[in-house]
Design goal:
With 153 residues, this protein is α+β, with helices and mostly antiparallel strands. It has 3 helices and 8 strands; from the N terminus they run αβββββββαβα. Strands 5-6-3-2-7-8 form a 6-stranded antiparallel β-sheet, with helices on one face. A two-stranded antiparallel ribbon has the order 1-4.
Length: 153
């Protein structure tokens, strides 16, 4: 399965998230995946929470799209795709938990899911199951709370 090689400013694989990623969704760009991709799905999950929590989900991004802008807010639709409700019950992005690791997942999906904006991120995960032709994973840590207070100063 080829990798999509996402580029996410402020989200370096194995590093710490930058301040811009705390409160607003990051910009995301990726390479042309080749054949067998009809849409994309993006997830940001907290891997240290029990159970794991999805902080952000965008899905049904059209096959021709190769990026989404930063700070998309709580819009139901973005870059030709749709945003799901995260595990906090909100459409859009919810920042990471201090001291937790976040996993960013980008899926190349063989079909358009056809779900409406605002469905739960868990419904999107279930819908992509068995239809992922390509994927990429990046993991970064959210600094401990002490680092957040420095940012606010």
């Amino acid at each position: 399965m080829p990798w999509l090689d996402p580029r996410i400013p402020g989200f370096e694989d194995g590093g710490l998230l930058e301040a811009a990623s705390f409160e607003r969704s990051p910009a995301v760009a990726w390479h042309d995946p080749g054949p067998h991709v009809a849409s994309y799905a993006i997830f940001l999950e907290d891997v240290d929470a029990r159970p794991r929590r999805v902080h952000w989900c965008v899905f049904d991004l059209p096959e021709k799209v190769r990026s989404i802008p930063a700070d998309v807010g709580p819009l139901p639709e973005v870059a030709g795709g749709k945003q799901a409700r995260n595990d906090f019950g909100r459409i859009g992005y919810s920042g990471p938990t201090p001291g937790h690791r976040c996993r960013f997942l980008l899926y190349g999906v063989e079909k358009t899911l056809g779900l409406p904006p605002g469905v739960s991120a868990r419904e999107v995960l279930a819908a992509v199951s068995g239809s992922v032709s390509q994927f990429a994973i990046r993991t970064a840590g959210a600094p401990p709370e002490a680092a957040w207070s420095v940012r606010a100063a």
